[in-house]
Amino acid sequence: MRLIYCCGVVLLLTLFSRVSHGGNILVFPIEGSHWVNMDVLLRALHSKGHNITIVRNSKSWYVKENSTYYHSITVPVERSLGEEMITDLISTMIDFERGALPVTSFFNMAVGMMGTFIEAHRIISEFASAMFDDQELLRKLKDSNFDLVLTDPCWGHGIILAKYLNLPLVYNVRWLIAGEAHFSLAPSPLSYIPITGTGNTDKMTFLQRVKNVMVYLIGQTQHHIMVSQTYQKLCEKYLGPNSDFNELSLSADLWLMRVDFVFEYPRPTMPNFVYMGGFQCTPAKPLPQHLEDFVQSSGEHGVILMSMGAFVSALPADMTNEIAAAFAKLPQKVIWRHKGDRPANLGNNTLLVDWMPQNDLLGHPKMKLFIAHGGTNGVQEALYHGIPVVGIPLFFDQYDNLMRLKDRGGAQILTIHSLDKDNNFLKAVEEVLNDPSYRMNMQRLSRLHRDQPMKPLDNALFWMEFVMRHKGAAHLRTESYRMPWYSYYSVDVGLFLFGVFLLVLTTVFILMRCLYRTVCKPKVKQE
Amino acid sequence: MRLIYCCGVVLLLTLFSRVSHGGNILVFPIEGSHWVNMDVLLRALHSKGHNITIVRNSKSWYVKENSTYYHSITVPVERSLGEEMITDLISTMIDFERGALPVTSFFNMAVGMMGTFIEAHRIISEFASAMFDDQELLRKLKDSNFDLVLTDPCWGHGIILAKYLNLPLVYNVRWLIAGEAHFSLAPSPLSYIPITGTGNTDKMTFLQRVKNVMVYLIGQTQHHIMVSQTYQKLCEKYLGPNSDFNELSLSADLWLMRVDFVFEYPRPTMPNFVYMGGFQCTPAKPLPQHLEDFVQSSGEHGVILMSMGAFVSALPADMTNEIAAAFAKLPQKVIWRHKGDRPANLGNNTLLVDWMPQNDLLGHPKMKLFIAHGGTNGVQEALYHGIPVVGIPLFFDQYDNLMRLKDRGGAQILTIHSLDKDNNFLKAVEEVLNDPSYRMNMQRLSRLHRDQPMKPLDNALFWMEFVMRHKGAAHLRTESYRMPWYSYYSVDVGLFLFGVFLLVLTTVFILMRCLYRTVCKPKVKQE
């Protein structure tokens, strides 16, 4: 039954791709916030006439089977990365951070989530195996004549399938298994490029540089363990014994990076990297009437928006109460995305919502402050609209994302550990609201971010179409990652030249000794 | 008199800049082919309403005093880099290469031209000193409120003046004193990035990598000698004893690179690099009637264009005769830019010209082959129009430029050394004319080059205006070059971590020995 369904879908889209003049794109998306931004790209590709096919698993949670703008191929799986897995992890992290020991985000990144990550990659591997064991599905994918594979390489299954189908590969990317994407491909000196998880900026003290190197080494170890446990095995099984997953993952034609150099510190990059940070941002559209009325009722004081991202619908009750109490003391109106129980001490100025049009609210003239967890999407939206931030990071890259705003004078950061102590929350919110420098700095960043020759989304679309027109982008891609490390770092050449130097030195020494003996010794004898 | 003149000019342009809405740009150009491409940028800036002031010396040879699109400030000098200096150098190089020993371009780059280079930088230093010693001129420059300094950092005087005036600095650049510009700023592994002067590609054998490292080391030594002999002294005299020229030269806000990644091999780059290769190329305009008639008379065979660049107006007579004889045997028509005596054996199919509209000829549908010396401008024009090349490199980067076309199957290279032996010239020309792969490869490169989201010139203009709007581009610029080398390469961190490792190892060893003594020794005693 599944086979017939798959055949039907594939036949349909093959026909469709022949009819349309657009490209034929195979997509391997990721769930959660990663889907939120992939979705923006896919809608834009669809509106330009491209035909989109998504491979999803049968327990997919964000990626729906039916859509008006993509076809889907569903691979049946036993288990999937469920919402529970993430929310459990978040609860653990919150408990962890509020415990006796105030652990840093470094510790979280390095140790706290390792087990969860390995488990997640295993679940993804099962999905990949189910797909690669289905010969009929693979044959149909081959026959569909896709023009490229678009994937988020945070999980590795799309990379392996692109190689299996011999198709150009495009990344919608920030992370590559266990490291930042540009760090993996471009030479990146650890002395001025902060590793995510350290909370460092691009100007580091000696001890910060020590931490940077250590976190890098831990990250590389994690990467090695995760890849060898999962994707390397898949590669050897389905692509042949000599295939190397790391090599494959670095061989993508185009890397659409979800950051820009207003958010990210300047650093080396490669010609096949396109920085599309903020591609999801658009000028604000009008708000629904009830929200507009609420916002307007704030008068001259303006509005505060609070959202802790896709996963954190409810914080622990005591923390929620602390936040509600602080909000009640403010003259501003507050819109708070909160799914848990209504705090008893909620002020009249605070509106709880399940969902809200975040981009349109951030772009509203009355918006004064964004209280956020620091996910890349939200931080880039704050940058685009020039709204100052109070950040409450939980895990992953959130602390480091917020650090980039704080370092430029646009944000304050609160840790879960100290949020409910000494009125810290209220103090931070009032500080950012009342000191105009935060807003001025974010407005300056916003001007820099918006001052680009092309909109980031248009640029990303151009380069995806470029890859389709030219069947890849080999001329923009180095293959230096295929060299053995001693060649890459010229260690062999260095040893060779040192050897030659020694040889020359020895020869000169011997010659001089001979010369001395033939010229001076006879004299001595004569004497 | 000179002072009054300068004051007048500066006053005029200060007024002018107040009236116009464009920016106010101070330019330090370079003579020869470097002026040819700077001129393209300046005309484009002028047409966008920007006010341009050029600092030239009184013996300037390419940069005229009067122009419809720029103002000029003339600094009186005793001597200048004259045409004779370059043509003498070329004659020497040709004699050199045709001598008994066939020397490679590596030798030319490394040793042959060192003396000329140092002398040239000294002449530039004299120009700079004359400018910095003129207090009145400096005061007027300060009062002119320029928005940025645009210079070609091949010579260093513009860099020092930008610092003196505290202005944002933009480079129209390929070379930085003695090295390729992106090599100087971006981390560039010598294992896959060919050093100009080696004739290497991005795929090197072991011995080619050895050569690459050696030429790099020689280049760095040359750079050090040239900078310390000239610009470092100027810096210390006019900017203060602690100023460092190398640091200054790497601190530019924007680097407009005169190459692109169709010509150049993929390599690491930096966020403040804009690749504008081919910015001077435009679709062909109609030819003057006499040229059009000549071109059309070629019928189905088409036309060959030969030009050896701005400096080489005449090759040695025997070589010229060899070339003329070869041309006479071809069915094509030939347009030959040649200023010397008319070769006696010139065929009826060959037209000698003093000057010709090179871009319009290369873009003509009847153009079949470009015989060129391999300067960057000409090579980028051949790429743009998709015309295959027979290259006769003389010095500098010319061999390496042509190598990039040859490596992609679009060119043949002849050395001066072997040009007039065994009919080599005729063979190479016929090979490229008759094998369609050369043209197909150049056409493919042309398609890649032209497939950009923006025209390179528009992109360059956008980023120059960006620097003016935001008073620089600090957020795109790392300051990593200010770190001491042991910090930049994390040598100090490595040693520290190794020390900690040794300490831990020693402690563990001592503890285990103590444990052994307290646990095992008593047993031995008991026994």
TrEMBL record, chains A, B:
Membrane-spanning parts: 493-516
Cellular location(s): Membrane
EC number: 2.4.1.17
InterPro entries recorded: UDP-glycosyltransferase, UDP_glucos_trans, UDP_glycos_trans_CS
Species, as recorded: Sphaeramia orbicularis (orbiculate cardinalfish)
Superkingdom in the source lineage: Eukaryota
Keyword check for Signal: yes
Gene transcribed to yield this protein: ugt5f1
Signal peptide coordinates: 1-22
Pfam families for the chain: UDPGT (PF00201)
Alphabetized GO MF terms: glucuronosyltransferase activity
Keywords: Glycosyltransferase, Membrane, Signal, Transferase, Transmembrane, Transmembrane helix
Name this protein carries in UniProt: UDP-glucuronosyltransferase
Main location: membrane
UniProt similarity note: Belongs to the UDP-glycosyltransferase family.
Membrane-topology descriptor: Single-pass membrane protein
A GO cellular component annotation in the UniProt record: membrane
Catalytic activity: glucuronate acceptor + UDP-alpha-D-glucuronate = acceptor beta-D-glucuronoside + UDP + H(+)
